[in-house]
Model the fold of this input.
Amino acid sequence: MKLSYIGLAILVLVLGEAALLANNRTQEDGWAEYRDSHNCKPVGDIEVSNRAGYLCDDGQVHYRWRQMR
Done:
């Protein structure tokens, strides 16, 4: 494989990652309002554990993108 193809592949990966991060940050903007309106509480406070995420009144655990591993 030529070096130029490897460089092109790395460039595509970097641009793709940047696009994904930009999209996630825009979805994060309404989190505080959503958390307050749906009475979301950190799971660690409810279960006394180190689990990440928020349990909301819809019965689901919601993870913010910064907490995903």
Q: What stands out?
A: Helices lie at 3-27, 31-37, 43-47. Strands lie at 41-42, 54-55, 61-62. The first strand starts at residue 41 and ends at 42. The longest helix spans residues 3-27.
